[in-house]
């Protein structure tokens, strides 16, 4: 299919067409970097990991366009789907367990003025309950649900055992994060468990493995946290919502597709912005908001009015150069109802 024009592929299979479009866009960004060379980079140009790889002492066969594009796809794919899964569960569980949303809003009300900007990620991390709520959502998204093997090229001595070189050693994050001996009621969303562990002096973080552990843990974990803190705080402080035709089966892990997947016939989580409530910062509006977090590279919000389709707003959150870009309607705290 790669020999066919992209519009033809998209007409035959839109999902494959989207994948090919994504791969082409990666190639268009990495190619000029590889072709440029350090002496041709414009002064003050933003440096990326691909500039570093290009100028590194790696063998030339490790710096081909195909090789660097593979690296780019791994980084953007791994960093988009996993963060999106965590964001999906956060928005779901805050409404599924509404007392948690009340507590998160109480904290945010102390740092976010109505209609004002959201504080920096550093400031938001100082809010204990918000931090616990996000951490619990990450725990219930598991990072990935499959094994991530580590292979050492030398023999390893572990206690009384010798692990031969080349032996894959792995664990399943899902099994650790749902161990009832570590996390009582493991499938229950309860941010308080992290606050209680800190008070009791328990090292619960030792078992927090959605990003892996050690020297090979996720290199993008700080970016993931920044996305979650900034995006969640913006939405929570400016909008109110309710679950719409969405239940636990849509978000709980029922299938291992590298990431956790709910029931196979699920349409994904749907959230509905509510009409005026005492807590709603978006009073008088009533729209249905389908939050589809499965688009690589961005979160996509389909905005549908109470009576008819009102259009689509895409790219509500993108990770570019380590910063979060929000659309104007989120900055303004208002939606266009057209």
TrEMBL record:
Residues in coiled coil: none
Keyword Metal-binding: yes
Record PANTHER family: CYTOCHROME P450, N-ACETYLTRYPTOPHAN 6-HYDROXYLASE IVOC-RELATED
Cofactor(s), by name: heme
Record-linked PROSITE patterns: CYTOCHROME_P450
Protein name: Trichodiene oxygenase
Chain sites annotated for binding heme: 218
Lineage summary: Eukaryota, Fungi, Dikarya, Ascomycota, Pezizomycotina
One GO MF term attached to the UniProt entry: heme binding
Sequence similarity: Belongs to the cytochrome P450 family.
Residue spans crossing the bilayer: none
Alphabetic keyword roster: Heme, Iron, Metal-binding, Monooxygenase, Oxidoreductase
